[in-house]
Write a structure and sequence with these properties.
heterodimer; A: 2 helices; elongated; B: 464 residues
Chain lengths: 62, 464
């Protein structure tokens, strides 16, 4: 799967202060690896079409 | 009673007056004491309470009460509340919480039916785990080979049942945490329809995807426990008001009249799961195949929802007690705090699209079979494995077949399949339409009757 991945360092530096979370240096490599996986997952999801009418519906009523 | 006696055996013997709940519980406590060091299954043993409850069950029976699970000892994953214990949920942090003031809903249901809780079981930290390892409590060990993983996160729950300590345990399953350990430990498990069994009093992980359910060593035992736990509970916000749909009496119909298909494509798997699936398909006479489109996207969506909801749940602890997490868990949760909201919303909407796609298949089939795991249990501590000829990290890959199914809340029975000449177990998922746990259980029973689905107590722990 070839997708254009965001710059992960830039992502951490931009968003972590916005949400007020500290990413300590010793956790950074692991966090980066997981963000990279998440970005790939999101890209896969994004290219799978869904209709505008598709609303979330978590529970089976019948 | 012996380690190999199941729920139905115990209920029959206690009901017939051949033994007492007291004796059954004492025997289970003895086995736990003898074997827990080797298996790392139980983290709390509530000996005094269990003996008192067993005596109470015997008294209720003497009063003429009918109790469908009379005398059955069981353990619960340590994210279920047990009154008087801090619910640790596999974490170092939560053991500092005050003790639970009441039992979880399912513990109350089972005890009302005459079963007796004997303790809490090891699990992966905060259930964010497929291995059954735990950095604080040590790993739960696979009774079939204690050098190998149980699978997780309900690792202790599977170890205790496969190791013959108890005939019944409870686990939770967000992305595969019942089905993966059931496969690795060679036992039956049930992940019911989302909204069927109450999660009240079970420490959450991903509210959108969390399920709870039982493990046992026979299909009948699984059905008896499941039937006793059914019932609406308004304390669980996703519980759906359904009538009691008892399954135990329907099992002997087997798969007669049911349309069964094997999932191909995404679910085809490597040699280990493929050989197992062929054995099961042959035993059922199944040749039909179905393809579930966009399953990789379904797994991706479940992955993102899990990261984001898990991060939201643990946000405060990440700020105040980061060093008390297993880094393997905290790094995923920290990453989860940084995900764009639009990704998560897209994932939730895709859940609906994928659900509609799979529901359309149930117009043609009643039960879909797929492997539970892509391999047999890796060794404890193993980091990578060869998957489709490529060396890949083991830990996230173990849920590759389970994650898309829990994503849309379908009921699944995890079925251990005997593959001749193989030491470690592996199992499949019998997946049914919403609310048709009965159909999945009937197919599991058919496989059991055909002799290909078996869940023996592991040889090293089986009484002669």
């Amino acid at each position: 799967m070839s997708v254009r991945l965001p710059d992960i360092d830039q992502w951490i530096e931009a968003v972590a202060p916005v949400v007020g979370i500290d990413i300590p240096a010793e956790r950074r490599a692991g966090v980066k690896a997981h963000l990279k996986t998440a970005a790939k997952m999101a890209a896969l999801l994004e290219k799978t079409p869904i209709t505008d009418e598709t609303e979330p519906a978590p529970v089976y009523r019948v | 009673m012996k380690s190999t006696d199941g729920i139905a055996d115990i209920v029959r013997a206690v009901g017939a007056g051949e033994t007492t709940a007291h004796n059954v519980v004492m025997a289970a406590l003895g086995r736990i004491e003898a074997n827990n060091q080797r298996l790392g299954a139980f983290t709390d043993i509530i000996r005094d309470r269990a003996i008192a409850h067993a005596n109470d069950v015997d008294a209720r029976l003497r009063d003429g009460k009918k109790l469908p699970l009379a005398g059955v000892p069981f353990g619960v994953k340590n994210l279920f509340d047990i009154a008087g214990l801090a619910t640790r949920a596999g974490s170092r942090i939560n053991r500092d919480n005050p003790p639970a003031t009441q039992d979880a809903a399912l513990v109350r249901k089972l005890e009302a039916a005459g079963a007796i809780c004997v303790g809490a079981l090891n699990m992966g930290e905060y259930a964010y785990d497929f291995t059954g390892e735990n950095i604080t409590d040590g790993p739960a060990r696979n009774p079939h080979d204690t050098m190998h993983m149980t699978g997780g996160s309900s690792g202790g729950s599977a170890s205790a049942v496969a190791g013959g300590m108890v005939p019944l345990s409870l686990g939770s399953d967000t992305n595969g945490s019942i089905r993966v350990p059931a496969s690795f430990c060679g036992i039956f498990g049930l992940k019911p329809t989302f909204g069927r069994l109450s999660r009240h009093g079970a420490f959450p992980f991903v509210a959108s995807l969390d399920h709870v359910g039982p493990f046992a060593r026979s299909v009948e035992d699984l059905a008896l426990a499941y039937d006793a736990m059914q019932g609406f509970d308004e304390a669980d916000p996703v519980a759906v008001r359904r009538p009691l749909e008892a399954t135990a009496g329907r099992l002997e119909r087997g798969s007669a009249g049911l349309r069964i298909a094997v999932a191909d494509g995404y679910f085809a798997g490597d040699a280990e799961p493929r050989e197992m699936m062929e054995i099961a398909a042959r035993a059922l006479g199944v040749t039909k195949r179905v393809t579930i489109a966009d399953t990789a996207a379904a797994r991706a969506a479940a992955f993102l929802i899990t990261m984001a909801e898990g991060a939201s749940l643990h946000r405060q602890r990440l700020e105040t007690r980061l060093d008390d997490f297993d880094p393997a868990v905290s790094e995923r949760l920290l990453a989860g705090t940084l995900l764009p909201a639009a990704w998560i919303e897209r994932a939730q909407r895709f859940r609906r699209a994928y659900r509609d796609r799979v529901l359309a298949l149930f117009a043609e089939v009643d039960v879909i079979l797929a492997p539970s795991t892509p391999m047999r249990a890796p060794k404890i501590g193993q980091q990578t494995a060869m998957i489709a000829g490529v060396e890949m990290p083991v830990r996230p890959h173990l849920g590759v077949f389970t994650q898309p199914i829990s994503f849309i809340g379908l009921p699944v029975v995890a079925v251990p399949i005997t593959v001749p000449g193989q030491g470690l177990p592996i199992g499949l998922q019998a997946i049914a339409a919403p609310w048709r746990e009965d159909n999945a259980l009937r197919v599991a029973r058919q496989l059991e009757k055909a002799g290909v689905a078996r869940a023996p107590v592991a040889r090293a722990f089986a009484d002669e």
